Amino acid sequence: EKTIKAALPRACAAVHPGYGVLSENPVFPEMLAQAGLALIGPPAAAIAALGDKVAAKALAVKSNVPVVPGVLKSRENLDEALPEAEQIGYPCVIKAQVLIGGRGKAGGIKLADNADEVRLHAGNILGMDIKGHLVKRVWVEHASDIAKEYYASYSLDRAAKKHLLMLSAEGGVE
Known about the structure:
4-stranded antiparallel β-sheet; 6 helices; 10 strands; alpha+beta
């Protein structure tokens, strides 16, 4: 809403959602259209398919792209997270499914080495508030053996009119 309110008085014809939450929200193109603004970006169906990890993973599997084994579970099916974790194998990762960055730092991503830890972490993550987003779903995924994590981001510095590549050996923490 803030983006639309900023665009309208400036006589904008189109809006680019950036590279964060708006770019992953399939409702945003509809909101723009209702306000008479065009979206610079993919159609809502593409955002829905790729902005949600579950839909994106299903599309990848359908397209024969190798993926880490994982199963989506909702709050109503919390008891089903355990059999899925058992099927996937330990260690596994319990991940909050919200369209916002910083899930790990907020405590929304936890490793589980056994059934008790799956119950504990899934129970703690479901209902958690991460930057104003209520966690209603968790993703159970086999934990990858990561020796070292790196962060890479490619962007555009509009002020300098140059491409910007950011690399960090600290991982995607900050």
